Structures are given as C-alpha cells and as structure tokens.
C-alpha cells in the first residue's frame, strides 16, 4: 500500500472513494463544504433530514452524484468540535478506512486535515493504515481489502510518512497477536524480531535456553519447563541518543500461549490465550517504529518469551524458584506465570541502567474486572512518571487508569498480601481480591528504585468483538503511547 500526499480539491480528485468528516455541532466546513457545494447541497440536505450521522466513528457511504469525480463519498462522524483531537482523528480515519476496505478499491483519498497540525496528520494517516487491515489472515474469502493507494490531503510530507510508519508498527503488533500459537512461539517470535532488527537497524541480542541458564533466570525458565518449545529473551536496542544517556526500557510479557500450566485454564478462558504475548508484540511494534523514525533517544526493548504448558516436566505448585535477582518465589498458581517471566526480564533490564521503565503485560483478569475491557491499569513506584504515561496515553485515545500501590500502614499495605512463610514472596496474593495490584506489587520487587510503570493490558490488547473503528483481534493499542513516550513527551 502506497501513501501519497494530495493537494487536489475533494470534488476534483480522480479516486474510487473519498473520505470527509463532519462535526456534530458545527456547519459543514473545509472539504465537506466543498463536496456539499459541488453536489448542489446534498450533504446539507442529508444533515437536515438526520440521514448523516456525526456521531464519532459512524460512517455513512454516499454513492454520488453529479459534480463530484469520485463515485463514492464516505462521511465519518467526528463528534463535537471541542472534543476533536488526535485521538478522535485516529479512530475516525481508521473507521472510514475499515468501512471502505469491505471491498477492493484502488484509490482512496482522505480529506480530514482541515484542522491542521502535523501531530493530527500523523495520527490520521496511522488510523487509515490500521483500519484497512483485518484479522482474515487465513480466510480464502477475505473480509478486508487494503487500497492500492491512500491519498492524504495535506502537503506535510514528513507527517504523512511518520503516520505511515506508525500505522505499520501498529499493524505488526496486531498481526503477531492474531497469528496462531503454532506459528508464533518463542523461537519464531525471536526470529521475527531479528528480521525487524536487521531491516530497520536495531541491535539485537537473543538469549536462548543455555544463556538463560547461565544467567540464572530461574523464574522465567520455570514457566517454560512444561513446554516442548524452549524460551527466548529478546533484547533490542535503538541508539539514537548520546552514548552515555540512560535509555528508556520497554519490557513486554511474551507468553506465546498460556494454557495456565498445571493450574489449567478452562477452555473458555484458554480460547484467546494466543494473545498473552501482546505485551512483547507491542514492544516490538514500538521498537520498529522508533528505529524507522530515527528518534534521537536511546531505547531498549525486552521481550520475555515462553509457552506455558502442563506436562510431566512442568513447574509444580509449591515449587520454590530462584529468580535472577536472588529473590525466592513460591509458586502457588502456575497460571500466574506472566509475573514470573517479567521478574527476570525486569532484572535484566536493570543491568542496562535505564532512566525509566514501562512494562506491558496481559497480566490479570482482575484488571479487566476492575476497569473493563477498554482500559489498561497503571501501577507505579514513581508518581511523576506514572502521570506522564497516563497523560500521553489518554491524549492519544489509548485509555489508562491508575490503581493504588499503597505501602502505608495508615492505609493498607498491599505488599503484605504476597508475603510467604517459605520463600521471599509468592506468586499470587492472599485471597482473590485486588489481584491486579498484588501482581504489580510482585513486579515492584524486581525494579529496584528505577522509576517504573506497569501497564496491565489484559483488557484492551485484544478485542473479542470488532469496534466501528477497528476489526476484532489484536488491537495494537499502546504502540502509539510507547512511541510518544520515547519522543520524550
Ligand atoms: Zn496465566
């Protein structure tokens, strides 16, 4: 798919379809007004008859009409003007792109840039690139057809290119999540990461079983023990900043399939567990984007890759693991494996003396119970860094909400819930309550004093059902947030 800048007016462009936007509380303006004028007031009449929805991400297809060269106009709702921002534009462009991708079309032109700045163009183009890709990877009869060329009405070539790169990074993440577990396992994920590194100039180091043993990653290795697939740790590095500058560390949970291990999940809960590597896929999508944009910063990306399976060699309840940091962990539930993987990966990240850490993990069902499926939980040991992650993610329309991490005797001490009589800590909290937080308290044991934010993405990483602006399956959520954080927002 090619992305081109266009300066041809909306009614004049020779395309198979054009996209315009309408705000719910403003008269038609810009390209929408031009289309209206060229079609003899068609849009205005439809608005007056309430046949044209301005509700955010509603798409109305109009088969035009004399006066407009393109045979099809997709009108996407943008909602009220005071709420229109980058986040709205990303989803609106994605919604229109998705609707038009229901059929094969060659040339699609987007006229959504009337409101200006580069940051808006980037997000809009990224949305258009994301919306036309679906999850129909293995269907003979495809459901989505990406156009040959997307034309974007803006003369800001740099912003258009940035948007394309961003959209392709998100699509990489979505594709890796959507591919089945017989295709995506620790070795094959590491091979894909190596391809990305080679193509876009990232350094990469892949730790195999022997190296992980030599490095005493006893916690991560224990999770992999039940599987016929050996584990991998992928360490990617982007050196865009000055040699001595401490990097930002992005850490992803990559459980390529989570059966639960001996604490076996029921079938319903296991069905979508190919998505348990979404944290690692998000890190890889972000690292690809950061490298291609040549951001002038140092960033490391670490993906902890294992398959969690039950077998005669699987870790058992009651096993005491020796993590790389020296901490001992009693296993009380083998389905709380993500934190066991991250314990060692976070410790490896500390070797590189990062300035700040973000980890992303489809970690707990408890977080989905607390916040629903659309919002990621944030837990942190550093309030300013957490505030930054929360602000950036919400500005981009990737919603997050902070959960408490009290260690204060006047309030409550969540840390006590992972105390253990036989080892330093145990891998599940006492009782079933506050499970997202006790998981984060566990991780906190492995980050030292480095400012760290844990994002529990168990809800938003995977859409069980399609949304108006995106197909179901891997969502690619938080690639944009990570890239923006790397820019130093
Ligand atoms: Zn699990």
Q: How are the secondary structure elements laid out?
A:
Elements: E1 2-6, E2 17-23, H1 30-38, H2 42-48, E3 59-63, E4 72-79, H3 86-100, E5 107-111, H4 118-131, E6 149-153, H5 157-178, H6 186-200, E7 203-207, H7 209-214, H8 218-224, E8 232-239, E9 248-258, H9 267-270, H10 278-292, E10 298-308, E11 320-322, E12 328-330, H11 338-351, E13 356-361, H12 365-371, E14 376-380, H13 383-395, E15 400-402, E16 425-426, H14 435-444, E17 452-456, E18 462-463, E19 473-474, H15 479-486
Parallel strand pairs: 1-6, 2-4, 2-5, 5-6, 9-10, 9-13, 12-16, 13-17, 14-15
Antiparallel strand pairs: 3-4, 7-8, 8-10, 11-12, 14-17, 18-19
The structure holds zinc ion (ZN).
Zinc ion (ZN) binds next to loops.
Identify the notable features of this structure and list them briefly.
489 residues, alpha/beta, Leucine Aminopeptidase, subunit E, domain 1, Aminopeptidase, 2 domains, eight-stranded mixed β-sheet, six-stranded mixed β-sheet, 15 helices, 19 strands, 34% helix, 21% strand, elongated, binds zinc ion
Describe the protein:
It is a single chain. With 489 residues, the protein is α/β, with parallel strands linked by helices. Helix content is 34%, strand content 21%. The model has no long low-confidence stretch (mean pLDDT 96). The structure holds zinc ion. Zinc ion binds at residues 258, 260, 335, 337-338.
């Amino acid at each position: 798919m090619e992305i081109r800048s266009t300066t041809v007016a909306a009614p004049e462009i020779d395309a198979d379809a054009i996209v315009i936007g309408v705000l719910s509380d403003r008269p038609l303006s810009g390209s929408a007004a031009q289309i209206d004028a060229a079609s003899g007031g068609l849009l205005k009449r439809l608005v007056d008859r309430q046949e044209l929805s301005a509700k955010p991400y509603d798409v109305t297809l109009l088969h035009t009409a004399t006066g407009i060269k393109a045979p099809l106009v997709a009108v996407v709702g943008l909602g009220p003007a005071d709420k229109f921002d980058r986040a709205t534009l990303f989803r609106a462009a994605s919604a229109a792109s998705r609707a038009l991708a229901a059929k094969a079309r060659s040339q699609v032109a987007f006229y959504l840039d009337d409101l200006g700045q580069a940051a808006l163009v980037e997000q809009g183009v990224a949305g258009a690139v994301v919306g036309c890709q679906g999850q129909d990877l293995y269907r003979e009869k495809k459901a989505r057809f990406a156009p040959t060329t997307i034309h974007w009405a803006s003369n800001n070539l740099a912003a258009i290119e940035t948007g394309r790169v961003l959209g392709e990074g998100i699509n990489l993440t979505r594709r890796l999540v959507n591919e089945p577990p017989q295709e995506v396992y620790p070795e094959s994920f590491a091979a894909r990461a190596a391809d990305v590194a080679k193509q876009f100039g990232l350094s990469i180091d892949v730790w195999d079983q022997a190296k992980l043993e030599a490095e005493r990653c006893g916690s991560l290795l224990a999770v992999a023990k039940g599987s016929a697939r050996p584990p991998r740790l992928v360490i990617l590095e982007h050196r865009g900043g000055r040699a001595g500058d401490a990097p930002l560390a992005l850490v992803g949970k990559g459980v390529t399939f989570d059966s639960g291990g001996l604490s076996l999940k029921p079938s319903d809960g296991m069905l979508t567990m190919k998505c348990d590597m979404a944290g690692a896929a998000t890190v890889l999508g972000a690292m690809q984007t950061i490298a291609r944009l040549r951001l002038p910063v140092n960033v490391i990306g670490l993906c902890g890759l294992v398959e969690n399976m039950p077998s005669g060699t699987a870790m058992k309840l009651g096993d005491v693991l020796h993590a790389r940091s020296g901490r001992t962990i009693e296993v009380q539930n083998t389905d709380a494996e993500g934190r066991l993987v991250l314990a060692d990966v976070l410790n490896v990240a500390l070797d590189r003396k990062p300035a700040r850490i973000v980890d992303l993990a489809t970690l707990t069902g408890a977080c989905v119970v607390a916040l629903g499926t659309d919002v990621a939980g944030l837990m942190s040991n550093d309030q300013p860094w957490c505030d930054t992650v929360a602000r950036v993610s919400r500005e981009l329309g990737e919603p997050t909400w902070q959960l408490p991490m009290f260690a204060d005797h006047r309030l409550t001490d969540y840390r006590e819930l992972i105390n253990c009589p036989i080892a330093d800590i145990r891998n599940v909290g006492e009782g079933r309550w506050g499970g997202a937080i006790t998981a984060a308290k566990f991780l906190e044991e492995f980050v030292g004093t480095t400012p760290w934010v844990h994002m529990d993405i168990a809800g938003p990483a995977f859409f069980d059902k399609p949304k108006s602006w995106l197909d179901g399956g891997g969502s690619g959520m938080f690639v944009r947030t990570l890239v923006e954080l790397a820019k130093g927002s």
